[in-house]
Amino acid sequence: MEKDHEATLLVMDNDRLSLAIITSILSKHPPHLHVLNPIDNGKLAIQACTGHHPPDLLLADISMTDINGLTVCKTIRRDNMTTKILMMSSFDIGRYAQAAFDAGAQGIIHKDSPQTILTAVRRVAAGQPLSYEGIRFQTPRDSFLRIKEAKTRELSPREVEVVELWSQGYSLQEIGERLSLSPTTVRTHLQHSCDKLGAANNRALISVWMARQ
Questions:
Q1: Which of 18, 55, 66, 85 has the highest count of CB atoms within 10 angstroms of its CB?
Q2: Ranges 41-55, 122-136, 147-161: which has the least confidence
Q3: Which residues form the Response regulatory domain (predicted)?
Q4: Structure confidence by residue, pLDDT tens digits, 76-97
């Protein structure tokens, strides 16, 4: 009789010391996961997670030297709907939470304590996406489908004009005056753009739009 599949965990961090510590912690207190050899390179993480045998869970640092961790996440999610991705950072995660959601992650945590990491890894590995200040992260499949749909739903020329001005800091009133539209119509264009690009709200739309440029 074959043994049950043991879920695999890959850790990506460009800080060698941090990488060693986190890997050691997860190896000594495994949440029923097999910890793979860690990597300190975003390109290798993408290759590992888009290959024939991707890990079940990727614990990825945001601040990478070669490729930003959020870019790594979104690149993986465009092709992979099974690997769970948990982002982490030593900085204020509030700065990155929405971007992590947009990139298809299942959560984001601060690298402040072993218990924080263990608790989050256990939860995400069990198929339970995290939440952060109103942002409810999705499952790998749902985030994959959201990103895939967004890629096929392009903005109209008018929506592009509105979103471009919005990302530059113009108010609804100012955009309306420049484009001869009412503030209500501008708001409607922004909402349609959010729906098409998979942004949670108008503020998140700015980061999504900037990432596409």
A1: 85
A2: 147-161
A3: 8-126
A4: 998 999 999 999 999 999 999 9
| pTM (predicted TM-score) | 0.71
The domain defined by 154-211 folds into: Arc Repressor Mutant, subunit A (1.10.10)
Alpha-carbon gap, residue 195 to 108, rounded angstroms: 23
> What pLDDT score was predicted for residue 3?
47
Instruction: Supply the pLDDT for residue 77.
Output: 95
Can you give the three-state secondary structure of the chain, one letter per residue? CCCCCCEEEEEECCCHHHHHHHHHHHHHCCCCEEECCCECCHHHHHHHHCCCCCCCEEEEECCCCCCCHHHHHHHHHCCCCCCEEEEEECCCHHHCHHHHHHHCCCEEEECCCHHHHHHHHHHHHCCCCCEECCEECCCHHHHHHHHHHHHHCCCCHHHHHHHHHHHCCCCHHHHHHHHCCCHHHHHHHHHHHHHHHCCCCHHHHHHHHHHHC
Fold (topology level) of 7-150: Rossmann fold (3.40.50)
Give the model's pLDDT for residue 166: 96
